[in-house]
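Input record, target 12 of the design panel.
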């Protein structure tokens, strides 16, 4: 078809041995892509945020409607949330730069947060206080199993498995810096959210 460049969006944490079918299939997708389009650039973002995201907006909806917010474990999972506009900019820069061919970039924001710290940041922005309830991952897995019967479950097993591991850029990985991009913090974007 004459396609000369391809940027594939994957995600941090690809691993064929993962217990998550989602992560496993994402990894398999990268491998299959390499077979059919070996010159592709792969972008692996951390959890993506933006004014209409399903991450911070979902947490904000729970914070609006409930006096408490449950935490995955003790809320210590590390995340490096990445702004959706920065991911789009990375795709554009990769397409414009032939050096990015056959390369994989892990994309994370400029700061690493614990899950609990992100919730605290969100609550501070919303000017709300909520009781934070630590829940063991086994309880989350049971809740996800029960929720699986719903058409739009509030939490899935794949999300729970993802939250058991830190989701941050590896020190040895190519990153935004290699693409000449200075990433945006959640603090810069949260004022654009309408809660």
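The sequence produced for target 12 reads:
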């Amino acid at each position: 078809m004459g396609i000369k460049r391809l940027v594939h969006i994957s995600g941090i944490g690809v691993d064929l041995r993962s217990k998550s079918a989602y992560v496993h299939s994402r990894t398999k997708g990268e491998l299959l892509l390499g077979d059919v389009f070996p010159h592709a650039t792969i972008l692996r973002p951390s959890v993506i945020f933006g004014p209409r995201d399903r991450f911070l907006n979902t947490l904000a909806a729970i914070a609006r409607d409930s006096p408490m917010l449950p935490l995955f474990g003790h809320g210590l999972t590390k995340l490096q949330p990445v702004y959706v506009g920065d991911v789009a900019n990375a795709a554009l820069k990769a397409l414009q730069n032939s050096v990015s061919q056959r390369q994989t970039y892990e994309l994370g924001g400029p700061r690493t947060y614990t899950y609990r710290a992100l919730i605290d940041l969100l609550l501070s922005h919303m000017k709300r206080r909520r009781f934070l309830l630590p829940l063991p991952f086994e309880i989350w897995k049971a809740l996800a199993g029960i929720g699986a019967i719903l058409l739009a479950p509030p939490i899935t097993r794949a999300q729970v498995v993802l939250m058991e591991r830190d989701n941050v850029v590896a020190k040895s990985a190519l990153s935004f810096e290699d693409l000449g991009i200075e990433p945006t913090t959640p603090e810069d974007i949260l004022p654009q959210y309408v809660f």
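The CA atoms of residues 85 and 100 lie 19 Å apart.
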